[in-house]
Amino acid sequence: MNIILNKCLPLIGLFTLILISGISQAQTKKLKTEHVFIITFDGLRWEELFNGATDSLISDKAFVDDTVALAKAFGGATPQDRRIKLMPWFWQTMAKQGQLYGNRLLDNKVTVSNPHWFSYPGYNEILTGFGDPAVNSNDKVDNKHTTVLEWLNQKPAFKGKVAFFGSWDVFPYIVNEKRSGIPVNAGYRTAQGKDISSREAFLNELQPQVPVLWGSVRMDAFTHQYALEYMKRKHPRVLHIAYGETDDFAHEGHYDKYLHSAQQTDAKIGELWEYVQSDPFYAGKTTFIITTDHGRGNTPKGAWRSHGDEHKGSNAIWFAVMGPDTPASGEMKTSGQWWQNQVASTVAAFLGLEYTNTFTVGKPVLEMMK
């Protein structure tokens, strides 16, 4: 009997390995996601996302041109009323079908791990999966690190199917387009190629005719429309769209325009989602991961305009996610801590991949997946 058992052990071991492998493959197949969109607001605070417009700022004439009109547009008796007015798609669609993390009033925290709390370090952390103290400026310097976008673009299944659209003209350097080979339409760039649509050609003509508010950041409407047309024409599997107006209006101290921009961006993301659900290539197979590069100051008065390590609270951010594999948990109310450095590995995990880099990266947010 022992002799027979000893002879069978290798076969049993082989069968076990096959069984485990089969289970692993089955678990991978359970994920329906085939495409991932990373969508970012620049510097949108968790305070507004979860609580709506701040009463003390709505009524502050130092930051608002028409306080009565703004109160009518964004005021409300409760935070829940105000946040629905500010971002109706988030709270009437995503909160019912997806998940939102980062309401610190519920001790649900999402935090930047890099020590600087501003844009280039934040986007670097989102896309590489780690915060690098040496990435400490917004200068137009090619990123020495490999992003998850570049990592995916190196794989046969995603080669040539990764793209980036942003309003800020530093993104080509953050993505390191020269090395990565990822097409980047950012700043005041136009659509390129012989196969661009008539709508893209019109955008190319229109963009230089529109007044420039900020030399390094274009209006988000162009970023959005260029990205939407590219989706229809090229069908990228992984796409990062980076909206920027909220940060620039905040820096200028226009709380009214900051709120209106957040509301308009909410509508833009809703339009993207509606298109995705109407396109057979994307429908039922696409996950949106939405976040921000940094928070903003929360005290004293006026600190909301700025961010950085000298402004308390600007390391506080948030996540939102929706797709075929995400439980519809809505606003996450459990006490917990998540990190900006978890985005990159979560993107890969939704695609059935384990992301690695030269530095240790944050772990996937498994709560986002069934």
Automatic annotation (TrEMBL):
<dbReference type="InterPro" id="IPR006124">
    <property type="entry name" value="Metalloenzyme"/>
</dbReference>
<protein>
    <submittedName>
        <fullName>Phosphoglyceromutase</fullName>
    </submittedName>
</protein>
<dbReference type="GO" id="GO:0003824">
    <property type="term" value="F:catalytic activity"/>
</dbReference>
<dbReference type="GO" id="GO:0046872">
    <property type="term" value="F:metal ion binding"/>
</dbReference>
<dbReference type="Pfam" id="PF01676">
    <property type="entry name" value="Metalloenzyme"/>
</dbReference>
<dbReference type="InterPro" id="IPR017850">
    <property type="entry name" value="Alkaline_phosphatase_core_sf"/>
</dbReference>
<feature type="domain" description="Metalloenzyme">
    <location>
        <begin position="226"/>
        <end position="352"/>
    </location>
</feature>
